[in-house]
Amino acid sequence: MWAKVKGIESSFRYIRGICMIVMVLSFFFSMLCWFSALRVINRAEAKVYILSADQALDAFASDRRSNLGVEARAQVVRFHELFFNLDSDERQLEEGFKKALELADGSARKVYSNLKESGYLAEVVSSNISQRIRVDSVVLEMKTEPFSFRLYGEERITRSTSVVTRSLVTEGWIRMVSRSEGNPHGLLIERWSVLDNKDLKVEGR
Fold first, then answer.
1. For residue 125, what is the domain's CATH number?
2. Tens of pLDDT along 135-148?
């Protein structure tokens, strides 16, 4: 009889040991699941979703300065495209300048006023002139704010009887400001000026 009792006690200890091991493993498995879920939640919170053309695109949160050079170059190019890509549609012309002037300070408005007062913009509309800019390079100095830039490019001006190619060299400074709908990069172009804008060649049509 004692042999049976000892056999039962041994079996009970064996079962209890197995149960303890299962409980410990279950505890560690639960903790692993909890930490994994926490990591997934943290990664999900770091994502920003952008709606573009009926598609949801995900963007990841990062330090603004990590992409500052790319954003500054894009801001400079975008401003010059809005300012110098001109068509004879008066409404489109004004809309382009309106968007461009949101990206710069009063120095750009001064250049715009000079173009308007000289009659060049009226000539673009009345003579069906088309003007396009080609950016060759943008040189940025990003050591200290405000950041300086110099843009090198060409203008191609198509008239009814000729095509004029002009050089275009501009310079200015870039200062960080709050982002807005009209200024998504949050960068403002300051003290902007045109250094060179002379005819390179004239071709007949």
1. 3.10.450.230
2. 999 999 998 999 99
Parent domain of 7: 2-48
Q: What is the pLDDT of residues 72-94, one digit of tens each?
A: 999 999 999 999 999 988 898 99
pLDDT digits (tens, 9 = 90+) for 92-119: 899 999 999 999 999 999 999 999 999 9
Both tokens of 156, joined, read: 């191609």
Same domain, 44 and 74: no
In a domain, 7, yes or no: yes
- The answer to the question of residue 57 being in a domain is no
Question: Per-residue pLDDT for 44 more than 80?
Answer: no
Q: What tokens does 174 get?
A: 């870039």
pLDDT of residue 64: 62
> Residue 55 falls within a domain, yes or no?
no
